[in-house]
Write the structure tokens for this entry.
Amino acid sequence: MTHDTALVAILPELILLIGACAVLLVGVMPRMGTRASALAFLTVAGALVATLLVQVPDAAAAPFGLWVTSLTFYVRCIALSVGALIVLVNWHQPAPSERGEYMSLILFSLLGVLLTASANDLIVLFFAIELVSIPTYVLVALSRDDARSSEAAVKYFFLGAMSAAILAYGLSFLYGEAGTTTLYAFSEGAATSNFPHSADLGAVGLIGLLLVFCGLAFKVAAVPFHVYVADVYEGAAAPVAGLLGFIPKLAGFVALVKIFAAFNWELPEAVTWMVLIVAAVTMTAGNVLALLQKNVKRLLAYSSIAHTGYMLMALLVGPVAGLGPLSDGVAALLFYIAIYGVMNLGAFAALSAFRSAGHEVETFESLGGLAKRAPVAAFALAVCVFSLMGFPPTAGFLGKLYLFSSAFSLPESHPFHQPLVLLVILGVVNAAIGAAYYLRIIMAVYMGEEVERAEPVGGAPVRWGLGLCSAAMLIVFIWPTGLADRARSATVVLHQSVLRNAGKMAATESEANTSHPLASRRLPNAVLPVASD
Amino acid sequence: MATISLNHYLIVGAVLFCTGLFTMMTKRNAIGILIGVELVLNSVNVNLIAFDRYLGPNRMDGQLMALFVIVLAAAEAALAVGICINLYKNVATVDVDRATSLRG
């Protein structure tokens, strides 16, 4: 593969990079600050068009430690689509003089997500994740000019730096185990993982895997690395809180998927138990603590922790249960995270579209009676909250259905069949607890008394963002295959490498599994033998 | 006298890591916490270089990553100072325990 074709393969990333620099320059020009948002929106849209139009050349590996696969394609699509909504919701956020920096930081963060999805090297993976996180620390500090946002930024930054250090320490052990930082080696067009099977995994590799999980648990906001979430969401402006629920979570989960896939999803028992317990505690703690909150932003922060718990459950299943839409854990996870990002952003967009008495709407009292004054915005907020609850006819219902059914479809011979069924039951109980506090928001909006008169602010872009978020929730419910098929085709490459490595172990590699890793990129319904039951 | 093996380096790395983690958890001054982060990142570098030296000849990956980690540490230090100045401007302290306006 020449460097020219490699540059074409990473065209969306290049567009984002150039756009982010251009937005930064436009921002410092006098009287041009207000144009920065429009330019940022155009950049994201251009990168999305490039993703959809440019056919990735059929080459096994791109240079620079990247490997562009169907997973990359899916993550690019959802990150850039939700990224466009994020730019809309943040359109008027900081003062015009700071808007250029602010928008370019959002673009750099999105660039980090895209690079995480195509990283084929531990070094690239680590720095892509840091490229996601570091701009978000600054965004929290920039979002408002008061003591609360700078306190939130300090807490977020120091815990983030600690998690990055733990992640790097874990990756150094993984390097020691594998002897190389490259995740997949390519020979004759087929990719094979450089990492050993769990049976051969030494103590060094086990420590590395546990530390890497701890480091990434911070990014996805899992217990016990969740302590920052509520303070940061409360201290940051609402549009930034909406962004924090999607961008770092997506990068963290994609990185976890890539690392687990490199280990062929044959995790050592200690790691599996740890993920299982973390998932159970995360969903329970998130929901119970959310019940106790009086501030809507803190409530949504704890609900974001609870949703991480549900997604960790699907991560644990992985591609082991088979390739169907209802059994593939990774496909369910990738489907859910896109939906979660949109519905969470919609809820925060609704909060940022109103102000009462000069400050943000963030208590139940200030939301009271919103439906009488702004029926459309109240309806859009209600759709997003019902979706967070997992109530039909919204996409959140389908997302939860896919997550839970993937955990149910582990074959009975699998050693973790029983614990996962218990985890699903816990998840369903938790979803019921969740309904209790989400209904409090709906109650306040539709039946609450008008204590404070919240006035609409923010202008057309925020309202468009809110409307598109809630419309997306209804459209995905009516037509889920558009997103679900893409999520499923994103995991085909994982299935192939899992099957191939399993075949390599048994020395009976079938012909179907040796096909080119990119050949299936345009074949969402590729029929592959399911992992043996 | 016993020769120094890979494990010795890994133990030095682990001691650095634990010291850094302990510093981060006990220090109340923001700059103190930053020093803890730097210690942990240095433990990463010790590990990477040791693996390079003992895993076989002509290994470069770990040394490359160590260089990048040094750059990351510098970037984080710059960012930390910026965020601390922002905190100092707003609440006139860099003692993280006294920044307590956000409570649930």
